[in-house]
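Students often ask what a 'structure token' actually looks like in practice. Rather than answer in the abstract, let us consider DNA primase large subunit PriL, a protein of 388 residues. Its sequence is given first.
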Amino acid sequence: MDALDAKYPFFATAREAVADAAVSLPELVAADAPAVERARERVERALLDGTVASESGAFPAESAYDAQAELLSYPIARILVSLLDSDPAIEKYAAAEAATAIDRIREDLATDDELRSMSTPTLALEDVLAEFDLADAIRAESPRPSGAGAATATGAGGAPGRDPEHYWIAVGPYLRLTSPSWGESWRLVNRALADGEVRVSREELLDALEAAVEDRVREGLPFELAAGEGIAAELESGVADLKRLLSERTYAGPVDVVAPELFPPCMRNLIDKADRGTDLSPPESFALMAFLVGIGMTPDEVVAFCADTSLDAEGIRYQTEYLSDDRGTQYPPPTCETLANYGICHNEEDHMQVAADPLAYYEQRVADAEEITDWRERNANAGEVEGE
Ligand code: SF4
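Now compare that with the structural description of the same chain:
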């Protein structure tokens, strides 16, 4: 069982390591082993914070858990999330595993080659592509030689000593791993396409790989488990705690006032970016949609609010309907900490001290405001004037 298996527990080698390990999950659960505590944390953080990283610190250097507990917590977390009996919880869990994995992959890829061979166990891009059967489907673009014509394609590693900025993905995997709901620029008609391959930037390639991880994690969930028997019975109190936590977190209900001038800076920045016609990355668009739904806007209102931005109506509808599922209170917007990790939050004047997530910050600003005119009212009045 090595640290890489623990970092990427959905990889085939990690599954083999679990199968080869002489441990029984029911016995671990019965003994309330550290892997069980970590599994609870994994699911709790996935549902509330959109990450599965341990609060005790980054694995492996700072984490309170060893490689065995970290690795075995993954299959136990899958059982826990199955027992929550909620499709949105499974979606949210898979998205959080994928978001955490892609952060780790990004860090691994940034690790210096020398360090890579010496100390920390890290992955190379080729390893990730091979894991998802994409080695033959993705090629790095060589840097354009000065004065030469079109860039050419090489293996996934690209030119030695330098990370390529663009890659070419075979059209089949591109369509399977990406979605037009991510924004206009993801539509095939808006892409450079040559010889059955689609050109993507390095960041876009990571977005596609994140989707591959998410699919892998979601595969096979939920498990069919008889309630009140065996491992399900042992995990009953953990599942009850998670359900209680979710209902407490969402008890207050949405603030249900749309006052864009009071939106927190992170959300205003995202709206400004979309207003300028720039595409939002999937985490940016998720954060914005989760916020707008979180303050009580309906999918139709969000579509109207985001008209004339880079966000397309179909993508907005898809995301907001999914987020406003009637059990969708399980989708609180990501926390300030998560948004800071994505570079979405800049914590102006240290206002992260005021609230732990953008929704809480907005609720506080609404509560402090003396007079508010709801955007919905203004919008309706403007519509009436135009109609006259
Ligand atoms: S501290 Fe929180 S609310 Fe403020 S900009 Fe950052 S993420 Fe948004």
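One point worth highlighting: Confidence is low (pLDDT under 50) at residues 147-153, 326-330. Ask yourself how you might have guessed this from the sequence alone, and why that guess would often be unreliable.
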